[in-house]
Amino acid sequence: MASRIATQQDIDKLRIPAMPEISPDGELVAFVLASADVNSQNKDIWIVSTEGGNPRQLTAGTGSNTMPRWSPDGQTLAFLSNREKTQRDVFGNNSQFETIAPSKEFQVYLLPINGGEAVQLTNMKGGVLSPRNLHPLVWSCDGTQIAFLNTEQLTCDEKQLIEEKGDTIEFEQHSKYSHIYLVDVPTGEVRRVSPETLQVWEFAWSPDNQYFAVVSSDLPLERSWHTSSRLVVFSSHDGHPTVLHESQRQVAMPVWSPDGKHVAFLSSNYSDRGAVDGGVFVVPSEGGSAVELSNTHIASTRYLVWSDNGTRLLSTATEQGGMGIAEIEIDT
To answer: What is the pTM of this model?
Structure first.
């Protein structure tokens, strides 16, 4: 076959796998297959054996189906989708509606891995928030609950001002906080668990699901993450926050040790939210001084995972424009 220069149409036909998630038993990988066409919003979830073979498509239709997350027993996939149709009142008098698809809001869906239709679990106004490059939803260890983020909605007056194209905008006077919510998987009941006036940028659920480690700030302003974010911990039952770490450096990506006694996190002076390349710190989850593990490292760490026995951290790190994988021994 004769070679030729690739066209934009050729590139748009490419399919890109992303967001891989290995099942608890290590036998399957769920992933998202998306078009390289930047104008395409269609994304679907597939699975394939970790031994290789032909992948199997799990979702189809219009809209985006993303962020697959395995239940602890490996029997169900939770994922985010905007497949739900929305309607617009054509004449403003409830006499005729126009169907608009897909919705702009992403909700949590559940899909039985052995067959069956996906079922919508949440119906939150504003949908589920997907923090930049971070986990948008987390299963509880017993598979009965899912934690996720949602942002406060505009008031009726604020919506009316926008619809009427009002000129008066009160800068940073009516900011909307992002909160942690729990949805009960059997019933679909939703409740907020983070304090009303605490901005949650990202969170990690403790191994026993009793506590949340949260990157937070007093105000939900983008500059607040850069200048006044801190690491706090609070009970999933009473929501009273205790500061674990606070400094002039940005804080990101908290991860609990398997025994729940420590929280590792990243901190940096030059990061962007959701793309932190920085130093590795560990702090006791009950309070104490944070210890930097990477002050002699040349590389800047981007992602952290604890080993099962809690003695090491597995990380991806950048160094002089390249990226690699490294292990960090906690004791040394």
So the answer is: 0.86
